[in-house]
Write a structure and sequence with these properties.
Radius of gyration: 22 Å
Number of strands: 25
Oligomer: single chain
CATH superfamily of the largest domain: Enolpyruvate transferase domain
Number of domains: 2
CATH class of the largest domain: Alpha Beta
Strand order of the largest sheet: 22-23-1-24-25
Strand content: 15-25%
Number of helices: 13
Distance between the termini: 16 Å
Largest sheet: 5 strands, mixed
Length: 437
């Protein structure tokens, strides 16, 4: 799909997308409770759909009714009759990094041999973590030299272990949920150099909502004091998916560079890591007003800023779009977190924004963006990375000519309504040379 963005001013009110981080964690918890869950404000991104596909493969029944998602896991893979009634299973996680990292330890609770696979960039992402950790927990595993597909056979048995948290917190999320579901009792997971701590806050928040208690000892140890029984089959859990700060960040940056808008549905008290976009917007001088039910953001003279994105690496793309319109050189820390995303994001941002006249320099863990008021319209490529497509679109709003984004359908991974949303705010957006209505 090819999308063209004409220089545009935007205004109006828009609802932020739903958080796939919140949605996928809720789906995983719903899978494990052996009962019924109602999820309000469910998402429909490709990653959300991948999570629902995993649930279906593992025996869950689910349906959408009046805008809510109803999940019944009473006959899921943790039910004793499931293994005997199902042939060898292959689970497909799509292209979801959270999906593969979170669901693999959960799937390892089963005594059944299960193959786990994915698609796209997920096939090249390192999975050595599982090769190293799961055998310590009694799980048999065969990988493709540390990559997909994985073949695993449990059951996972909780014990005291120590893991490396420097690559991604998503591995820990899966272990925490699996330990809880396995009835961990007086055991702990020690973690070295944990990154993206706010995402673990979100995991613990979801777990607490579903009835699992974990003691967080300064993000260095997570202790399960006593066994917590799974919910009875008659249990009913209600969970509301949060608005997404990751997708909302692009809307907020769009407002800062191209108009005055109101964004609804973002909880300023959220544990989501990407809430830190507010700090960057304040530091660069954007016009910003935070109300109880919305955030107002508008254009002003923007100045370069310094930002540490180590715990929120998904903010790099919208931050680069923002920095492109700031006077001076912006510095962002956390580049080392970008290599194993849908693309090598540091290099991709450098290459694609260079086409728009923005110079980006990389120095180990630091990125330097030289702001330039004269952003060039250009033909850019998403590199099949949803956040690159959205970052280029936001930067294009005040470029000096039209910008064409190739493979723009990459947005479907996290924010399928993105182009429709900015169009509703007044952006001139056309799809394959046809104006989006």
């Amino acid at each position: 799909m090819q999308v063209t963005i004409q220089p545009s001013l935007i205004e109006g009110t828009i609802q932020a997308p739903t958080s796939k981080s919140s949605m996928q964690r809720a789906c995983a918890a719903a899978l494990l409770i052996k009962g019924k869950t109602i999820i309000q404000n469910p998402g429909h991104s490709n990653d959300d759909k991948a999570a629902l596909g995993i649930l279906k493969s593992l025996g869950c029944e689910w349906s959408f009714v009046n805008g809510q998602l109803n999940i019944d896991s009473s006959k899921s893979f943790l039910n004793s009759s499931f293994a005997s009634n199902h042939s060898p299973l292959t689970i497909n996680c799509g292209e979801s990094g959270l999906g593969i990292r979170m669901f693999t330890p959960i799937i390892a609770l089963s005594e059944k041999q299960i193959t786990i696979n994915g698609s796209g960039s997920l096939l090249t992402r390192p999975m050595d973590f599982f090769d190293e950790v799961l055998p310590q927990l009694g799980v048999e595993i065969i990988s493709n030299n540390g990559k997909l597909p994985l073949q695993i056979k449990g059951p996972l048995r909780p014990k005291d272990i120590e893991i490396d948290g420097s690559l991604s917190s998503q591995f820990l999320t899966g272990l925490l949920m699996a330990y809880a579901a396995a009835g961990a009792n007086n055991v702990s997971i020690k973690v070295n150099n944990l990154k993206s701590k706010p995402y673990i806050d979100l995991t613990l928040q979801v777990m607490d909502h579903f009835g699992w208690k974990v003691e967080n000892k300064n993000y260095e140890e997570f202790y399960f004091a006593e066994r917590v029984k799974l919910k009875a089959e008659s249990a009913m859990i209600n969970y509301t998916v949060e608005g997404d700060w990751s997708g909302g960040a692009f809307l907020l940056v769009a407002g800062a560079v191209a108009g005055n808008i109101k964004v609804k549905g973002l909880d300023i008290n959220s544990t989501q890591a990407d809430k830190k976009i507010i700090e960057a917007l304040k530091d660069c001088g954007a016009k910003l007003l935070i109300e109880n039910d919305h955030i107002e953001i508008g254009t002003s003279s923007l100045n370069a800023f310094h930002f540490d994105a180590t715990d929120c690496p998904d903010l790099f793309p919208p931050l680069v779009a923002l920095a492109s319109y700031c006077n001076g050189t912006t510095t962002i820390k956390g580049v080392n977190r970008l290599a194993h995303k849908e693309s090598d994001r540091a290099i991709t941002l450098q290459d694609e924004f260079a086409k728009m006249g923005i110079e980006i320099k990389l120095d180990d863990d630091l990125m330097f963006i030289n702001g330039n008021k004269n952003i060039h319209g250009a033909e850019v490529h998403s590199r099949h990375d949803h956040r690159i497509a959205m970052a280029c679109a936001v930067a294009a709003l005040q470029a000096n000519a039209e910008t064409v984004i190739d493979e723009a359908q990459a947005i479907n991974k996290s924010y399928p309504d993105f182009f429709d949303h900015i169009k509703s705010l007044g952006a001139l957006v056309s799809l394959n040379n046809q104006l989006i209505n």
